[in-house]
Amino acid sequence: MVDHFMDKSYRQQLSLSDRQYRFYDIAAYLADHGQDVETVPYSVRVLLEEALRHADKDPERQSVLTAFNDWDNAHDQDIPHQPERVILQDLTGVPALVDLAAMRDAVAQQGGDVNKINPEVPVHLVIDHSVQVDHSGNDEAFSYNIQQEFKRNRERYTFLKWAQNSFENLTVIPPDTGIIHQVNLEYLADVIHAKQLDDGSYEAFPDTLVGTDSHTTMINGLGVLGWGVGGIEAESSMLGEATYMPMPKVVGVKLTGQLSEGITATDLALALTHLLREHGVVGKFVEFYGDGVETLPLAYRATIANMAPEYGATCGFFPIDDQTISYLKLTNRPAETIELVTAYAKANHFFYTPNADRHYSETDSLDLGSVQSSVAGPNRPQDTVYLKDMPKQFDDRRDLPDYPVTVDQHDFNIRVGSLGIAAITSCTNTSNPQVLLAAGLIAKKAVALGLKVPSYVKTSLAPGSRVVTQYLQASGLQPYLDQLGFNLVGYGCTTCIGNSGQLKEDLQSRVSADPYPLAAVESGNRNFEGRVNPLIKDTYLASPPLVVIYALAGTCDIDLTSQPVGTAQDGQPVYLKDLWPSDQEVADLNDKYLKPGEFQKNYDSILNQNQTWNDLPAPKSATYDWDANSTYIAAPPFFDGVAGEKQLSGLRVLAKLGDSITTDHISPAGYIGSQTPAGRYLKQKGIAAKDFNSYGSRRGNHEVMMRGTLANIRLRNQLTPDKTGGYTRYLPTGEEMAIFDAAQKYQADGTGLVVLAGKDYGMGSSRDWAAKGVKLLGVKAIIAQSFERIHRANLAMMGVLPLQFLPGENADSLGLDGTETFKINVDGQTAHVAAERDGHTTTFDATVRFDTPADWTY
Predict the structure, then answer these.
(1) What enzyme class is recorded for this protein (predicted)?
(2) Alpha helices in 623-710 (DSSP H)
């Protein structure tokens, strides 16, 4: 095969306007190996093109091509992946850049050239995860929140300016510009990339990327293959290194028919999340096809692709088609880019062909006409709840008493299901003009009828792009949203990432003293317990128009199909049907106010429109000048040359956990409590509680982050069944204490640690600190029933063993209660485990989840 490849070139030329582009003909290669390109999924075609291109330039990569000769029988073969660019957000990007700065220090100490530590591919870091909803519900909220954001994060932002000035190929997009994935969708992605080669000629190939945020998958809605990775893997990609992955299985999902009147992209995304979680797509590609795909505007596809981590897939891919081209025109992409995308995609078989007989590893289907209005919750995105069934969510708590609160000089009785937060937030939905215009139309009708949002509900609007504000203002809808309290609070992730701020006045103090099952509704993508706000247990994901509806009702404990949302000023009940706009109303506004000029106005000045950012100092130096007293930025210990450990015996259990342990549980992003180990550390450093900021903002400091590991207040460690939060038992004495404190005692004893867990360990955000943190606590292995893709890779890269129970086994079935002493012997892909308790030893085997050669290297 290699000789055949060497004897034949698959290079072709594409002539456009005044320029010629070289490209690699995937159809010709497949034909030479007995395959018809039309039978191969589009996502696999992208991987094949990359393999062809690199094999032509690097003979050592030619052997990889054999995996594509029969791709669906090659899932045991590893293929290199070298994305063309990397995107970062600030919470995960800062620690990645801190690591690069530390690498430069290590090179300098060895007398090397520090400038060799530079990104080799374009890297964009979008600052979007730091703004918090300190104020909301008024016209001053936006400016106040920005002021507080810069006050809290000045040191971090100055570091990012240093990084931009000191590293090549790094562009930092300033705060309060937009959310990373919406900026990527509307501006950064070019779909087909044109690269000038050393000889001056041009080469065209598909845009591909990885990002340090799990929802990087949103870009697959545009026909760009990309997914989230941990910071460690992103650093490797930034430095031009290939990472390895098994040839993916591809699940083809056939969409048929069309959505019914009033059904939103959010409803569809939630339906698919439920369907695909049940199907089982973890670690697989999902690719959408069928006549239903052609009916979906690109913004709908982006919402669906965004939620790939929630349905468990590596990506949810939509091939390039006419909707893609229309979106590129709408968002004011250059004419030459649109010409190249169209011509290349058609010439090289990346343009969607209906009714082709493509082969998929597995298939599933959904009739779009069957999708109903729904929300998801209370704590998992895949748990669909139809509107009529919402009251059933609270049946088991109706015996809890009401309690009175006073907010804005109004008295209310708070009961089960009462809303503490209603937030229009997250790029998942704010990238979709249809649902935002629908929310605005509902607000307009509600105001006309005299409806108001109860003042105990904290309302907010945080778009993923300034373009949203432009069309909401131009259409005249923003003033109505303002009257209901959905004022602009910032352009960033806010509530979706847990930066929701405090609840309303008396409600905050009352709930803090007497925890009560308040609810939240948000247009985000994740609702894990305690994520949105530590005082809110139940969070429901909903479309922006439904967020407004539930806010007006003041509760989630309502059947919107039969019960009134509120009472009009004339005393008549107002129902959902009285407020919900028609699809035509929304379409008319969309066509009138969403124009390419709006995108041009925003993105022409994207790098300099934030004057506060412009005024920050911009240091430049080959190495970073670390401040030993900083509680934000510190040189990490990961490059200190610690030798690998051979002996895995005498291990004790730090935590015994259940199913669906998220990276939020392992490494929370939000509030730092004053009595937590991290809070105590910051107080010792002279930081007042009001200035603690969040765990996410302090990811550049390992001292804070290791203390925050396994510190989520909703964590349930079975070693301390009577407590929730970051507690464990120090097993030699049985004493209960904070997990960090116990880990320190174990390290002082020279005792290594293990964590026992159930299914889906590490689901959720891509955050690498969930792996870094347990590593620094002294954890040698995680033994779980299953792992989510990104977190498994992060554990491997940090040298923490991900061990998976054999099918049919788990900690409970083996009789493990967490008080055992463990010995682990790794023998290839199998680990032989012995757990001793009270003189009795339980032995079992587990699978070593080192899935690629690179995992063993780490």
Answers:
(1) lyase
(2) 663-666, 677-684, 702-708
